[in-house]
Amino acid sequence: MLRVTGLSGGYHGSAVLREISLEVEPGAVVAVLGRNGMGKTSLLKAVMGLLPWARGTIQVSGHEISSLPTHQRVRSGIGYVPQGRGIFPRATVEQNLRYGFVVAGRPMRSALPERVLELFPWIREHLRQPAGTLSGGEQQMLAIARALVADPPLLLLDEPTEGLAPAVVEHLHAAVGRIAGSGAHAILLVEQHLRFALTLATHGYVLERGAIVVSGSSEELQREDIVSRYLAV
Amino acid sequence: MTTVLNGLTLAAVLSLVAIGLAVIFGLMRVINMAHGEMFILGSYTVVAAWEATGNVWLGIALAPFVVGAIGWAIERTMIRRLSGRLLDTLVATWGLSIVIREGLKVVFGAGSRNLPFPFTGDLTVLGTRYPLYRLFLIALAVVVMATVLWVFLRTDFGWKVSAVTQDREMAMAMGIDAGRIDAAVFALGAGLAGLAGAVMTPLITLNPEVGLFFLARSFLVVIVGGVGSLLGTAAGAGLIGMGQAALAASFRPVIAQIVLLVLAIVIIRLRPTGLFGRLQG
Fold first, then answer.
1. Is the CB of B167 less than 8 angstroms away from the CB of A88?
2. Mean pLDDT over all residues of chain B?
3. Which of A19, A18, A44 is CA-nearest to residue A31?
């Protein structure tokens, strides 16, 4: 589904990603773990073409996308939920969802897909509300719903639990679990919340200073020595 | 009554010029100092068409497209390379405005000229006889502004502009070609200013310097109306246009200018984000 090989990248004059290679199988959930500032968000940005510079190869469904601009990369089938959610605050909840049609080349006035509304039933009652007035958890779910409108085979989630209350995190966990369970979307999940990530993912990679230092199954990544060395805060 | 209609005429023209300035700033954080020259290029499109064919209408019809194409080219060749650098774009567009002004002097001469009205005649409106052409101008501006508002608020294109304005990276991540949106909006803004210049041609004593007057007034409109608000731009144009006409009817021009600027400063002091401005910048 997603195959990244030898990916380096960063900002002006500095590299924050070093020779990263990873793979996500169709329908699989793969976690990217690591402490703050280790390059997790930059990794997703590099896949999206939102870093000032990057080199290496990025293949989505067999298409090489690393030379394309961002708006064309997503057409290969990527749904992106950035850190901070990336909701358009002045647009309504409904409008935010409708932006999801752009990538599919469909008119924004198309009928909203039922599968998305069923995933988050509360959205139906809040369609006319300005998205900026939603709670953090609601904005997170809206961002995920919006990314799913075009039914992308690959979903990139950047720290979805950031800043959310434990009860909301549980709710989100169930929702991401349902998305993963449908088998229609592979998910690359960047998280600091270990239990959240490793109960959803089957595999994971650990980033330290922009490089992958450990990779393995979720069980392996929960070993005491790995957690204390690379992940414990 | 004549004063009100004069105010409406000015407001109509200002709204056409200011809307481009406002939308371009909101979308790209570019203060286009050459926007007055887009107006004047519209006027000279009419001059060129008139000198070639003797037809004023032809120039008015062509102006928005000619100037829109020029705006598109400016965005593609210059603005794009300076994106995100407010001061650099300010200086660059200011330089461009000088180039355009002096270029027009080379091509058309520095002297002033007056063009005939495409039609004459008066109409009695609410007990006042008023030139038909000015009424046409007001009606045209209302129709064009309504269309522009519809485009920005109700079409996919307008929604995409709004997305790029709110969060450029996320808009691109939703599959929106932000660069194309920039070029299209810059062309649209320039085209509207060009249309304003074209329809104003018979009403003004045209020379390459008059763009500055409309640029300065448009800045006032955008600031008073509230940066980044379409409705505010329309309201600001109404206020500045009416204010200017009312003051011009009662005072000498210089005094009227001073009073208008003082009023604008008072409004901004009382409402720093403008009449319709949003509190979060």
1. yes
2. 91
3. A44
| pTM attached to this predicted model | 0.91
Q: In this complex, is the C-beta atom of B162 within 8 Å of any C-beta atom belonging to chain A?
A: yes
Q: What ipTM, to 2 d.p.? A: 0.93
Query: What would the pLDDT profile of A27-40 be if each residue is shown by its tens digit?
Result: 999 999 998 888 99
Residue A7 is given by DSSP the state E
CB < 8 Å to A52, chain B: none
The CA distance from B167 to the nearest CA of chain A, in Å, is 7
Q: Which of A70, A78, A103 to mutate to test the interface with B (most CBs of B within 10 A)?
A: A70
Measure CB to CB from residue B174 to each of A50, A90, A102 and give the nearest one.
A102
* Closest B-chain CA to A80: B173
Q: What is the CA radius of gyration of chain B?
A: 18
- Classify burial at A188, counting beta carbons within 10 Å of its beta carbon; exposed 0-12, middle 13-18, buried 19 or more: buried
Top-tier CATH class for A2-88+155-231 = alpha beta
What residue in A sits closest to B167 (Cα-Cα)?
A: A88
How close, in Å, is residue A153 to chain B by CA atoms?
Answer: 15
> Chain B contacts of A90, Cβ < 8 Å?
162, 166
Mean pLDDT of B239-260: 86
- Residue B272: CA atoms inside 13 Å, Cβ hemisphere, count? 3
Q: What is the DSSP letter of A125?
A: G
**What pLDDT band is residue B252 in, cutting at 50, 70 and 90?**
confident
A167 exposure class (CB count in 10 Å sphere: 0-12, 13-18, 19+): exposed
pLDDT digits (tens, 9 = 90+) for B160-205: 999 999 999 999 999 999 999 999 999 999 999 999 999 999 999 9
B170 touches chain A (CB under 8 A): yes
CA angle B122, B126, B128 (to 5 degrees): 45
pLDDT for residue A13: 80
Directed axis angle between helix B35-53 and helix B2-28, to 10°? Answer: 120
Contacts of the segment B47-50: beta carbons below 8 A, 24+ positions apart: B47/B108, B47/B113, B47/B115, B47/B201, B47/B206, B48/B108, B50/B115
How many angstroms separate the CA atoms of B181 and B184, rounded? 5
Q: What pLDDT score was predicted for residue B148?
A: 94
